[in-house]
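[Automated response] Your request has been received and processed.

Submitted sequence:
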Amino acid sequence: RQGAGPAFPKDVEIDMSLRIASIAGLAVPISDLAGRVQWVDDALKLQQGRGTVAGIRASGDATLHWRDGRAMLDGNASVAVLDIAKLDTGMPGRGRQSPWDRPLPLGAWRALDAGLRIDVGRVVGAPMAVDKVSGFATLQNGRLRVDLASATIAGVAASGRMDVDAAGNAWRLDANAQAQRIDWAALTRSRGQPPAISGTMLGTRATLATRGTTPRELLANAALTLRTAPFTLTLARDRGVLAVEHASVDVEPGEPLRLKASGKASGTPVELSITGGRMAELAQPATAWPRIEARLRSTLKGQAIQVDAHAGPLQRLVSGRDVPMKLLAVSPGVRAT
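Generated structure:
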C-alpha cells in the first residue's frame, strides 16, 4: 500500500533464513542475497546480510520501518573491495548508451528516507589509490548528505561532506573536502616512484558545486576550487628549496582547469601557471586533456626568464611514462626550444 508498511496483525512476528539467487526489475540489481530476516515490532530487519549489489559484494544489517506513513531504512554496510568498473557492468543493460550519458536516478531517491553507515576497505579503478573509507549517509525527501569521516587518498588522510539534492528535476551536488597534512614523499611513494620532493602541505581545502541530469552534465557544469596554506618543499639531492607562498586551483563551468602558484625557489621569486582541460573531457580518460600548457616566470643572473611548456594527454602525465613535451625558454637576447 502507498505510504504504509505491510498489513500484518500486531501480534505477528516472523523469523526466518533468507536466500535469493537474484532480484529482477530493480533500478540496482541484487543477487546472491542471504541473511536472517525478522518482522518484529512493525519493522522488517535483515541481520548478517550479504549479497551482490550492482556487481559489488557487500555485507551488513538493515532495518526497514515506517514513520508517519513513510518508509525509513537504517543500517550499515561494509564493502571489502569496491571495483568502479563493476558498478557499470553490474547495472542493467541500456544498449550502447554510455554510462556517462545515462539519466541519474531521481524518483528512487524520493521513495524512502534512510540513514546508512558505510565502510569500504579499498577502491579499485579510481585515478589514484583510495582505501579505508568510512562515512555516514542520510537520505531525506530526496536529499542526500554524506559525511566522510575518514579516507586515505593516494596515502593522504582526508575528510569531507557531500550534499546531493534530487528533489527537483536534476541533481544538485555540493561537496567540500579537507586534508590537514599532505606528505609529498609519501604521496610519491604511493605511486611506486622514488620521492623527488619532500615536504608537507598543511590545511588543504577543496570545494565542488555542480548540477545535471547525467554524469557527463555533472562534469561539464562543475565549479571547483582548491586552496592551501603556504608550504615548503625540498628537492632531492640538495637541488634546492621551494617556498610556496600561494597556490590555487580553479575551474569554472565549461572552462579549463587553471592552477596558479607563486613563491621562491632557493630565494629566487618564481610564478607558475598551468592550464589543463575541461572537466567533461575526463569522461574519456585515455584522450582527456591532450594539451596541457604551463608557464614559468623567474629570473636568472638578474635577467627575466620565461619558460613555456605543453604536454599531454593527462593519462600519460599521471603515469609519468612516454610523455611528449615541448619547451620554449625566452630571456633578453636568448630564445631556446
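Summary generated for your ticket: Residues 84-89 form the longest helix (6 residues). The chain has a mean pLDDT of 87.
If you did not submit this request, please reply to this message.
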